[in-house]
Each structure stands twice: as structure tokens, then as C-alpha cells.
Amino acid sequence: MQALLVLCTCPDEASAARVAETLVAEHLAACITQLSGARSVYRWQGAIEHSAEVQLLIKT
């Protein structure tokens, strides 16, 4: 079996907690670390956007 590390961002703590709980409950992840305070900078529809996000480190 190959272990994987998946990075995922969520818009807030509540949705990150739901994703983490669901993935572990469904045996799709062995462990998930939830990191608050992530900031993303990206281009969207011609403008540069800044977003506060919650980073998930999903380990299989």
C-alpha cells in the first residue's frame, strides 16, 4: 500500500472539521491535521484575490 499526503483548503473551520471527520469516518484517510490561518493569493476574473483559509493535511 502506498501512503499519500493530500493538501486541501477549506473556507472556514466548520467546513474543514466536517471534511476531516467524514474522511476519517469513511476510512478514506488515516489522519488529518487541520491548520488554521492559511492565506491564499490567486488571480480570479482578472483581479488578484486574497483569502483566509484552513489547510488540511490529509494522510492515507
UniProtKB/TrEMBL annotation:
It comes from mine drainage metagenome. Transmembrane segments: none annotated. SUPFAM superfamilies: GlnB-like. Belongs to the CutA family. InterPro entries: Ion_tolerance_CutA, N-reg_PII-like_a/b, N-reg_PII/ATP_PRibTrfase_C. GO terms for molecular function: copper ion binding. It holds the Pfam family CutA1. This is Divalent ion tolerance protein, CutA1. GO terms for biological process: response to metal ion.
